[in-house]
Write a structure and sequence with these properties.
Elements: E1 2-6, E2 9-13, H1 21-28, E3 47-50, E4 53-56, H2 64-72, H3 82-91, H4 93-96, H5 112-124
Antiparallel strand pairs: 1-2, 3-4
Helix pairs in contact: 3-5
The chain binds FE2/S2 (inorganic) cluster.
Length: 139
């Protein structure tokens, strides 16, 4: 069971917490305004506001705790340890493309310096993930 608020409406859904948020919005809630493009967090067609942040819903599990676990899982992050993960997220050219994705696409809203500082702070503090309460999401 996953519970969250979408468009000021509380919803409780019996879905796997690892299901991409995009499919929960489109298939379970009928919110088809959220589009599927390439499904690789690159084009921005699926972008939604999640707790005030722009999130690519095609790759974001419906649970924030699951998102955290997914990016830390070597089986899902190309076998990166935490140091390599931080380097990838702050320096990889493909990831950095999201800073300047081209005309008609929404760039990542947080300035890169701020993102890198917060990511490194999280890493230095032990890179813990939130508890999976299913209550963190507010769309
Ligand atoms: S479908 Fe393109 S970024 Fe998600």
């Amino acid at each position: 069971m996953v519970s969250f608020t979408v468009n000021k409406r509380r919803v409780n859904l019996d879905v796997d917490p690892s299901t991409p948020l995009l499919w929960v919005l489109r298939e379970n809630l009928g919110l088809t305004g959220t589009k599927y493009g390439f499904g690789m967090a690159q084009c921005g067609a699926c972008t939604v506001h999640l707790n005030g942040e722009a999130v690519r819903s095609c790759v974001a599990p419906v649970s924030r705790a699951q998102i955290c676990r997914s990016i830390k899982d070597p089986k899902q992050n190309k076998n990166r340890n935490l140091d390599q993960l931080v380097e990838h997220l702050t320096e990889d050219k493909l990831v950095m493309w999201g800073r300047n994705p081209g005309e008609g696409r929404t760039p990542i809203p947080m300035p890169h310096d701020e993102f890198a500082a917060k990511l490194k702070q999280w890493h230095a503090a032990g890179a813990s993930c939130p508890a999976d309460t299913g209550k963190q999401a507010k769309l």
